[in-house]
């Protein structure tokens, strides 16, 4: 049986981003939990990794618009189809929103956005304390929401792989197509 | 592909899914510290700083009283021997600063604050920035952030034995006690020497590292004033005094860098380095104008000591990381309460 799959580049970007975003969420909750020297190390990874995710998200959106996605199985119940589309929309939204919120909140704080020694990004907002409070709150709460949606996504992927066995997981599986035959 | 098989198999599949999701959630919760109540969080430290009546909404959680100023840092270029930082190359750089008191209680009169502070944000033409918060003692009361938290708990404790027990466990506090008991008080922010306390690594143009602490030495001659005399002055006398002084003439400090030698306690801000260490005067700070904090440019600045120009970085001293983390929480909380500390028309604030 031939499975309709995402293109190899789309699969590669998906799994690279999966690793980056999970690492990012763990770094984020880890860094705000500590005052040890690890704090600065984690913050210094958090910023460049966030911008890397933003760039990958752009690449991914272009790929998705150009190459599309394999159709969901025809026998998948409508509510599950709807949930799949909505959750993907939310995941795309958060992939863009989280790095932009982080960049914007540091801008509103008037805090330098330094990616590496000597590489500084310009502010994307003027300094404004009230705006900072809003953006900082959103960045934190949406991070928890992001993790929750990723858990749903992971649970659904495993449900397709192990219970329904309907080819949906295989469409994005990190293995070459010949391995599925 | 296999068709979905027996209910027995499906139960196993659901168990695998549940196991993966629970494991991921547990790892996340562990990383966030939710399973480790013993971890020293910034919430604990900032909470322990809270004065008996609670923090003043919209204000900094420590060093709560202060006055803003704008000024200039004129680097003489001598600092280039230690760091390639643009802000140490000869030139004049704008500064947004804050003179402040080392207390978390906004109602405390100026005369009661044993520790005074000076915070600076020096801005380079290339976008580089140097933020620092300095205090009047020549060293910190304790060696580690954990000991600082224990000190806050002990000093807030109603147990009569709490402070003696703390001092027994942290003998380094004795030097600070001696300083607090013997160092002269002055009647002016301008007569104080402010010390950076923490050590940072300076990298010169050749790539060599030097561990450095810095200080701001006052141009004004310190005039000792007994604390009971200060107690008779107005509660905000330091703000009034610095305004009067600036109207009469310039207010200046000289920035001095002190270089550690091998074996010096670079990771322990409670230990002064031995006398005679190489010291370089690298520039002059001049105040040009003062502003009430409510409307001043320092108000919304987080004086995070880890905002450093290229050529200066943090060292083995554990405090800058702890301060950066705790200041971020203080900033977040006061930002969320900004409405409680409204801007006022200049001069309208009582």
UniProtKB/TrEMBL annotation, chain A:
Does the entry feature the keyword Repeat, yes or no?
no
Keyword annotations: Cell membrane, Electron transport, Heme, Iron, Membrane, Metal-binding, Transmembrane, Transmembrane helix, Transport
Is Electron transport given among the entry's keywords? yes
In its UniProt record, a GO molecular function of this protein is: electron transfer activity
State the needed cofactors, names only: heme b
Identify this protein by name.
Answer: Cytochrome b
Q: Which organism is it from?
A: Roseomonas indoligenes
Identify the InterPro entries for this entry: Cyt_b561_bac/Ni-Hgenase, Cytochrome_b561_oxidase, Di-haem_cyt_TM
Identify its protein family: Belongs to the cytochrome b561 family.
Among the record's GO biological process terms, what is one? respiratory electron transport chain
The record's subcellular locations are: Cell membrane
Query: Principal localization?
Result: membrane
> Where does the Cytochrome b561 bacterial/Ni-hydrogenase domain start and stop, copy by copy?
5-173
Which GO cellular component terms, listed alphabetically, does the Swiss-Prot or TrEMBL entry include?
plasma membrane
TrEMBL record, chain B:
Q: What InterPro entries does the annotation carry?
A: Catalase, Catalase_core, Catalase_sf, Catalase_SrpA-type_pred
Q: Which domain of life is it from?
A: Bacteria
Catalytic positions are 63
Gene3D superfamilies attached to this UniProt entry:
1.20.1280.120, Catalase core domain
Instruction: Specify the enzyme's EC class, one word.
Output: oxidoreductase
One cellular component (GO) term of this entry: cytoplasm
- SUPFAM superfamilies for the chain: Heme-dependent catalase-like
Give UniProt keywords alphabetically: Heme, Iron, Metal-binding, Oxidoreductase, Peroxidase
Which one Pfam family would you cite for this protein? Catalase
Give the signal peptide, or none.
Answer: none
Question: GO molecular function terms here?
Answer: catalase activity; heme binding; metal ion binding
| Positions with a binding annotation for heme | 327
Which GO terms are recorded in the biological process aspect for this UniProt protein? hydrogen peroxide catabolic process; response to hydrogen peroxide
Instruction: Decide whether keyword Heme is in the record.
Output: yes
State the EC number(s).
1.11.1.-
Cofactor annotation: heme
Catalase core domain location is: 60-335
Family according to the record: Belongs to the catalase family.
| Described purpose of this protein according to its UniProt entry | Has an organic peroxide-dependent peroxidase activity.
Name this protein carries in UniProt: Catalase-related peroxidase
